[in-house]
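Let's sit down with a protein and look at its sequence and fold side by side. Once you have written the record down, we can walk along the chain together.
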Amino acid sequence: MRARMLLSAALVLTAFGTLSGLTLERAFQSGLQQAQQDKMQTLIYSLLGAASPGADGELLISIDAVPDPRLRQPLSGLEAALFNEDGVIVWSSTDFLSLTQPSAPAVGEWQFERLLEPNAFSLAFGMRWIDASDDPRRYTVVVLEDAVAYDRQVGVFRRKLWGWLGTLLVGLTAILLFLTGWGLAPLRRLGRELQAVESGRQQQIAGRYPDELQPLARDLNTMIISERNQLTRYRNALGDLAHSLKTPLAVLRGIETQSEQNRLIQEQVDRMRHIVDHQLRRAAAAGRRSLTEPVPVRPLAEKLTAALTKVYADKAVVFDNRVGPAVRIRADQADLYELLGNLLDNAAKYGRHHVRVDVIEDASHFAIVVEDDGDGFPENAESLLQRGARADTRQPGQGLGLASVVEVVQAYGGRLLLERSALLGGARVIVTLAPH
């Protein structure tokens, strides 16, 4: 948000500063040109005031009577000339003979323009002179002035203008940076508190926030407390249910009898106990929670492999724990324990001597990979993952405990794949979970 706001503000300020600079520069140039035109008009009026007809009736201007002394100086940058209606110069200042006559305006009109060659301003005025013999004659008065001084003023103004505008834009950007940081500070504090809640450093959001963020902070606290209370009540109820069911089942199982009918009852009791255990594990899966502390996977895998090494000591199973010490998955620890425990137990039970566990992490997912060197899955192993086609965990065969794994994976919106291990030659189970 801060980057977008700063980028948008920088673009707006840059566009505004550029347009303002171009407008001011254009206004300054227009003002200078208007002042230049006014000055040259005044000079033309002064020249006409010093004009008088000559012996042949042509209008002449006495060089000694010109109002600006630069007209009498060579290479002064100011020239003037008087053209008759045939375009012939009847009077000129010192340097004008080498210049080309500009286009003649109509009588009583002014023609002001900037010439590129030479670099000068030109002002022409069309007039008609009526002499004593009442013989009107058409003339054009032309004044040329070098534009070097004008270009110098424009250059100085342009440098100062863009320098000040650049400094102003940098200053405004710095102010916007400060104001944006100050304005977004409550959001950053809220984000830090959420991270603290997720990591377990605090139980809920406790800071004071502006009125606009107070409802959000309150609703987040309500969600956090409700989620924790609901999970606690849920698991307490499951524990009570487990205690209530297991006790009478244990009593029934403890009854010793030799009759065929009672042996059938004993089998059904065992089946009921198995179903209760499975359904309790299924219901206890917490699933993905939005605000939960990431669980380090390697210590959990080490605890499980140490326990399974003792369980399968007669097989001398070697567990290769390749999980990195920095791998942390945002999930309930009991769910990960259930998932990894079933996968490792299956691999140790149906493998021969070698079990390998690893977690592959990238930006889009975590992949928990468990491999063994056993016989691998049967051809129809994928059917065990279909809804309603679960394996009976009381029967021998590859895939025991997969039903519980599927329940946990589904609770987290993940995927479970059954493959052949290219490394060990046996089964390969891949559980894919999103990182957040």
In short: The chain has seven helices and 14 strands. The first helix runs from residue 2 to 49. The chain has a mean pLDDT of 79. The helical segments are 2-49, 148-199, 214-253, 260-284, 297-311, 333-350, 402-411.
